[in-house]
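haha ok so turns out i had the wrong file open the whole time. this is the CORRECT one, sorry everyone. sequence first:
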Amino acid sequence: MHQALYRKWRPKTFDDVCGQEHITSILKYEAEKNSFNHAYLFCGSRGTGKTTCAKILAKTVNCENPVNGNPCGVCDACRAIDAGAATDVLEMDAASNNSVENIRDIRDEVVYPPTTLKYRVYIVDEVHMLSDSAFNALLKTLEEPPSYVIFILATTELHELPATIISRCQRFEFRRIGMEVLSARLEQIAAAEGISVTGDALRLIAKLAQGGMRDAISLLELCSGGRKDVTIDEARVGEIVGVSSRETLASVVEAIAKKDCDTLFSVIDDVVRSSKDIKVFWQDLMSYYRDILVMKTADDAARYLDLTDSEKAQLERVASLFTRETVLSHCKQLESALFAIQKSNEIKRTVAEMTLVKMCDETLDTSADSLLSRISKLEEAVVLGVPTRAENVVSAPEKKQAAPTEKPTETVEKPKAPTASKASGQRAVSCWIEALERVAQTESRTASYLKQARAYMAEDGVITVYFTDTFTMSMVNTPSVLSTVRAALSICLGREITPEQLRMEYSPKPLPEEDGDAMINEILKKTEGKEI
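then structure:
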C-alpha cells in the first residue's frame, strides 16, 4: 500500500524536527534529566509538528536507552509505539470524541498502572473541540494525575481553551516554519525520492505551505504525481495548485495603473477558462499588493519579502506606479471584494471585474480612502511640477482653459487702484486658510502677511488676492512667494494653478467672505494630521 510522503518522512527523533528548536531543546533537556512534566500543551498552526513531537515525547519517556534526550528507536518500547501497538500510549481525536463520557473513560483508566511501559501517555489532539462538561471532567485528573500518567494536549486554537486547562499544563508555542527551512527539507526529500524539482518550484511550494511542513510535503507529492520522469518547475506548480505567477499579477497591477481594462478582462477570462478558482486568484493578488505595501513603507523591505533579485526589481518597478495612499485604497477594495466573492457563486467573475474597473478609475469610488488617494496624487504632482487634470477632483464646475504652449515666467504686478467691478462673478476661496497653513510650514513670516489678505476666484478660474495696504502686498508680491502660494492653492483646490491664474491686488475694502468650495474644504479637513 502506498504511504503518503508526509507520513513516510515524519520525524522519529527531536533532532529530525525542523524549525522548532526552541521546543525540542527543552524536551531533550527534560529527557536527559529524567524530569518530565505531568501535562504538556502543544499549540500552533497546522502542520508545524505538534502531534509529531507528542509521539516522540511518548517514546522518549518510555525509551529504555535514550540517546542525548532522543528515543533510541530500537528498543521494544520505541518499536511498539512506532508500530501503534503500545496499549499504554493512547491517541484520541477530540474532534470526534468530545463528550464528557469520553473523558470519564480516561478518568476511570488512569487509576490502573501501565501494563508494559513505564508511563501511560494520553495524546489528545484538537483538544479545543471538547465540550464544556468534558473540560470540567478533565480538570481534576489533569491537575493531579498519578505519577505514571502523562497528558499531551495539542490544539490549533489556544484561545478556545479554558484558562483553568492552560494553567495546569507546560505550554509550548509551535511557530510557523520558515521558507528556507521548508525548502531545504523539501530538497532533501525530493533527492531521496528521486523527484526532479527546480529551486524556484521549491520556494513556491514552501510559500504556498504557509509555514506548515505537512502541507509542504503534500504539495510536493501532489506536483510530482508519482512520476519521476517529469521535472517540477514553477509553472507546473502554478498549473497544478491553481495559483497565478508573479508575472501575471504584475501585469494586472500595471494594467490598473494604466487604466487598461482590456488586459484586466482578459486576465479574468483566462482564470475562468482555465478552471482556476477566482478566489485563489484574488488571494494571490492581495498577497502581491501586500508585497507592494511593504516595499512602499518599510525601510528594510527585503527583510519581510522572500524574493529573488529579479522579483524584487519587478516589485520595485510596479510599486513606483502608485502612492502609498492608493495602495491602501486598493487593498481595502480587494478585501471587501474577497468577502463578496466568498459568498457568491455564479457572480464571482462579475464581482472581480467590477472591482478591478473601480480600481482603474478612482472617480467611481466615493469612499474616504479613494478620496485620500486622489488627493495624494495631486500633491505629488504639484511637488514634482507635473501638470494635472481636474477630472479627479470633487469641486464646483470651472471653465476649461487651453494649456499654454510655453510656461510663462512669473511676473510681479504693481499695485492697482481699486475698481468697483472687481467683485463681479467672484467667490471667496474657502480653502484659503488651509493654503496659508501650508505656506506657513516653510515661510511663517510670509504667511503672517498673507493672513491679512482675502482670496477670491473668478468664473474663469483666476484667483485674485486682495490686500488692504500696499506695503503688505509689496512684501509678498515676489516670484518666490507667488510660487509658494500657487503650490499651496494647487493642493487645496486639487488642480494646477498656473502663473497667470494668480494675481495680487490692492483694495482698501476687502470683499465679504463667501462659502465657496465647501466639498474640497471638508475633505481636506478630514486629512489633517495624516501623513501624506
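The first strand starts at residue 39 and ends at 44.
again sry for the mixup
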